[in-house]
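[Meeting: bench + compute handoff]

Bench side (C.D.) handed over the final construct sequence. Compute side (W.E.) agreed to return the predicted structure before the next meeting so the bench team could plan truncations. Sequence as handed over:
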Amino acid sequence: MTRFGQSKRTRFITLEGIEGVGKSTHLKFIADWLRAHGSKPLVTREPGGTRLADEIRRLLLTPRSQPVAPMAELLLMFAARASHIEQLVRPALISGRWVLCDRFTDASYAYQGGGRRLPQRQIAALEHMVTRGLKPDLTLLLDAPVPVGMTRVRRRGARDRFELERQAFFERVRRVYLRRARNEPRRVRIIRADVSLSAVREQILNVLQQCVLPWL
């Protein structure tokens, strides 16, 4: 067992990226690949995954006339994360299941740290309290220029509170994501998401074969 109770045979994999990079689509592709190789992953998302976390998700994503204070947003994110980890993620890892998650703590550094300009040290303090050492074994950062992502989002129709943010917000988010990838190159693998679906899947497949297949 690791220090947070995860079986050595299990793995925690996350997908990150700004809006419009196709995380949901590629999450399913990865889950199907894992199942084809004998794994039965728990597929989940943040914020969300438990009843409480899903309720917080609705609070966070619903457009509203008054702005949400950045610190209130950050604390809600970590409240949802605490519920998600303790009730779903950690029990799954301890039981021997792999976990595949759409966003995790990297998103807080990118969105609340970069986008909202909150100090990274405050996010790190919350991360220490809430995750208690739990970090992804592998993170795939789906990266695309902000205008590409925003064009895709607008084509989908109705937008949530984050999707209504201006381009400058997402430029800051993207910069933090890329900086984290540079700082942790062994964990965070950048996937170009501004190319065709087949080209994105080819990149993902290469990472899965290089990094994940030896773990199975």
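W.E. noted at the follow-up: The longest helix spans residues 70-95. C.D. will use this when planning the next construct.
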